[in-house]
Structures are given as C-alpha cells and as structure tokens.
Amino acid sequence: MLEEVDFQKEAANIEAFRRYLENMGLTREATAPKVYQYCSTQKVLTMQRLYGVPLTDLDSISSLVPNPETSLITALNVWFGSLLACESFHADVHAGNLWLLRDGRIGFLDFGIVGRISPKTWAAMEVFLGSIAIDDYDSMASSLIEMGATNKDVDVKAFAGDLEKVFSSIKELDSELVVATASGNNATTVSANIVFDERQMNALFLDVVRVSESYGLKFPREFALLLKQLLYFDRYTRLLAPNLNMLRDQRISIASNRRNRYRDSY
After folding, report:
1. Residue positions annotated with a catalytic role
2. How far apart are CA 218 and CA 138, in angstroms?
3. For the whole model, what pTM was predicted?
4. How far apart are the first and last CA of the chain?
5. Whole-angstrom Cα distance, residue 101 to residue 54?
6. Residue 26: what pLDDT?
7. Domains of the chain: which residue ranges?
8. Which has the higher per-residue pLDDT, 208 or 11?
9. I need a surface site. Which of 19, 23, 57, 140 has the fewest CB within 10 A?
10. Handedness of CA 105, 77, 46, 35 (dihedral sign)
C-alpha cells in the first residue's frame, strides 16, 4: 500500500513501461503519460494529460474507432508483452486505468500497482492459461503444483477433477449485460457492465474455498495479480468483442513469444 502512494516509485514504473513500448516498437499502438520529473516529488506526480475514454464507454469508443475488437486486441498484446519484456507489468487495468485515446492508441494510466513475474512462474502460468483454453484439467493441476501453489503431496488426478468442477461452475454462471445511458451537454453517453447471479457467485466461492482448503492452495502474489487482470480483460471482451476467445485467438501474442525479441534489443 505504501508503494502505491510513493510517486517516485510510480514515476519509475511509468518510465519503465514507456521504455518497453519504445524498445518493442509499440509507441503507435499504446502509450503511458510522460512524467515531468522536475515537477514531481515523492508526494507529487506531474504527468502529461491524456484524452480518451474507458474501455467500457461503448458509445464513445464506437465514435473513435471503426472496430473496437481491434483496439481490445492491441491492449491485450501490449499488456501480455509487458509480462516479461518490461521491468514490471500494470497490475490494475480496471476501466479507469485503461483507455482508448482520441488518436486511437491504448492509454495505460496509474502505475501505482505493478507486478513482477519470474520466467519460471510465467512458464507455469502459460500452461495454466493454455489448459483453460482447451479444458485440460490435468495440465492445469500440474501447472499449479509446478508454481508452488499447492501442498507438496497432491493427487494430481483428484485435484484435476475438483478443478473441472470449479471451472464448470464458472461456465454456467448466468450473466446479464446492463447498459446505462447518461445525458448532458447535448450528448448522450452509453456505458455497460456485466452482472452475475449473486447466488451462483456465492456457491462458486464456496467451491473455491473447499478446493483451496483441500489442496492447500496458496497462490503466489504475482499469480493473483495476473488472474485479476485477466478477469478485467474478460469483462472488456464480453463488452467489446463477445465472440473473441483471448486465450485461443491467433491475433493475440502471449508474452513468451516476444521474449527473445526484447532481449535482442539490448
């Protein structure tokens, strides 16, 4: 929490992300606000102002770009690429921090919360994500064990079976798209949210608790941060590109595919 309000550390996080964009040739696709160091201290952060809209502002997004799905894919590729090609990754990509800018680029804001992930943990995470995409629960269980998220002596088959039950419950969640409009200054804006059935969510939570207690699940901090961001991106996918599968779509590059390119730039 203290790091989140240390603006010198946040400034360093922003500069690291901007270097990543420059090194990877992504400055035409995305940006982060420039920090004015001479006007900044540990308690004051002075930055370039960016103009744009959150990725949940459907009406404004449609007026800025012809294909919102393309913008979402850009955001995913930039973020996935930063997992290993940047000193840290943005770990709070809610709608207030991830914008579509007026010039069509993706704007990443507020670097108070960032994460860092080791290649070993990310390798296990990639297997985990890939196993979700194809419903391979044996691989999912093995990857969680590999990243040290469980007790040492775990029955992989039993663990895989329980994971399948949890993820089946997730797939069965009833969701509702809630669209809200607001009028002002002779204009109407449209925003949207995904709402889930509360009873199903409570039942799912109890299942997760049961599985966690049975296998001693203790996720590394970076895993929890990654998973939270993927849930944010899942929300944007449901709103902007409901037919997109972000774990299977060939247009989306996972971080390890860019690792060598980044290292070769140094």
Report:
1. 92
2. 19
3. 0.77
4. 33
5. 9
6. 97
7. 3-117+245-264, 119-233
8. 11
9. 19
10. negative
